[in-house]
Amino acid sequence: MSLACRTGCGACCIAPSIASSIPGMPQGKPAGMPCAQLTDDARCRLYGRPERPAFCTGLRPSAEMCGADRQSALTWLTALEAATRP
């Protein structure tokens, strides 16, 4: 089941690492660092644009990933990042 993003969350733009280039982050993004394209109100400046990394366009919010609040989402995504680190 896919959900709409929670207003003010941005956990998926902070917790995971992104290996591909992002405008403002040509070497990608390390885990735990907010994306350069994350706005102050936790929205993506690249949403719907071709510059948005494939990782981001493929990530779909779900009840399991998003949890009850932003902290739950950060915790879940941080654990997933650690479990899938090479």
User: What is the typical, i.e. mean, pLDDT?
Assistant: 92
The oligomeric state of the chains shown is single chain
- The run of helices and strands is HHH
Number of helical elements: 3
Task: Outline the structure in words.
The protein has 86 residues and is mainly alpha-helical. The protein has one domain (11-83). It is built from three helices and no strands. The protein has helices at 54-58, 63-66, 70-83. The longest helix is centred in the last third of the chain and has 14 residues, at 70-83. The protein starts with 53 loop residues before the first helix and ends with a helix. The model has no long low-confidence stretch (mean pLDDT 92).
Q: What is the compact description of this entry?
A:
This protein has 86 residues and is an all-alpha fold.
Highlighted features:
86 residues; mainly alpha; 27% helix
Helix and strand arrangement:
Blueprint: H1 54-58, H2 63-66, H3 70-83
